[in-house]
Amino acid sequence: MELSDTYIASFIQPRNALLQEMERFAQEHHVPIMQLVGIDALNQLLRIQNPAKILEIGTAIGYSAMRMAMALPNCEIVTIERDAERVQHARKFIERSEVAERIQVIEGDALEVDVASLPSTIDAVFIDAAKGQYQKFFEKYSPLVPSGGVLYIDNMYMHGLSDLEMKEVPRRKRTMIRNLHTFTNWILQHPDYTSAFFPIGDGLLICLKR
After folding, report:
1. Residue 78 contacts by C-beta under 8 Å, 6 or more apart in sequence?
2. Closest CA to 143 of 161, 106, 118
3. Annotated binding-site members
4. Which domains does the chain possess?
5. Which burial class, exposed, middle or buried, applies to 111 when counting CB atoms under 10 A from its CB (0-12, 13-18, 19+)?
6. Which residues make up each annotated binding site for Mg(2+)?
7. Which of 185, 205, 181, 210 is nearest to 195 (CA)?
8. Taking the mean position of all CA atoms in its chain, how far away is CA 63?
9. Alpha-carbon distance 6 to 22, whole Å?
10. Cα dihedral 16, 21, 27, 30 sign
C-alpha cells in the first residue's frame, strides 16, 4: 500500500522564514535542493549519529548545510561547490542565518580540492553533487572518515531514471545513470562498508564504515 502525499507531508518539520525564502528561490531559479522529507530524514539520522564535523559535496545555495547545522547545534560543516554564482548565493543566505559561524563554504571542484586543506577527520560526508561522479567523490573523501563514520548519498533514484531500462533513459543522461549503477554495485560489495538504501525523497544511500 502506498502512502498518500498528504500523509507524508504531515511529518514535514516547520521551517523558519529564511529557509522558506530559500525554498522559493530554489524553485524560481531551478536550483536543485534536497526534498523536504529527505532532509528531515537525513537530519534525524544525523542526530542519532551526532557528528562533530560534516563534509558536504555540493553546496548549491547552502540550504542543506544550513538545515544540518540547525539540527546539530554542536556540529561544524565544510561544504564544497564549484558553481561560482551558487557559492555567492550560498554565502549570502548563510550570512543571514544563526549558524553562519559553523559553516565554511569552499569554492572549487570537489575532485580538485586539496584534501590536506580539510579537517583530518570527518565524522560524516554528505554527497549531493554530480551524480555520475559519486564513486570518485566517495573514493577521494572516504579516507577522511574513521571507523563508525557514515557517508550519506542523495538522489539515488535520479527522479525515477535509475529504475528504468537503459533504452528508456534519455540519451544525454545514460552515461550518468550507468555510472550511478556502477557505483551502486561497487559500494554494495565494498568490504569496508555496510550500506543500506532508504526510499526517502529522491533516494538516500547510507554507508557505515566498518
Report:
1. 53, 54, 55, 56, 103, 104, 106, 118, 119, 122
2. 118
3. 34, 64, 81, 109-110, 128, 154-155
4. 5-209 (3.40.50.150)
5. middle
6. 128, 154-155
7. 205
8. 10
9. 22
10. negative
Which residue's entry shows cell 580539510? 118
Known binding-site residues for S-adenosyl-L-methionine equal 34, 64, 81, 109-110, 128
pTM of the predicted structure, to 2 decimals? 0.90
Q: Cell for 55? A: 563534509
Say which residue the cell 554530480 belongs to: 130
**CA-to-CA distance for 60 and 88, rounded, in angstroms?**
10
Distances (CA, A) of 188 to 14, 85, 143, 202: 35, 35, 17, 19
Predicted confidence pLDDT, tens digits, the chain (210 residues):
455 567 777 889 899 999 999 999 999 999 999 999 999 999 999 999 999 999 999 999 999 999 999 999 999 999 999 999 999 999 999 999 999 999 999 999 999 999 999 999 999 999 998 778 899 999 999 999 999 999 999 988 665 545 545 555 566 566 777 778 888 889 999 999 999 998 888 789 999 999
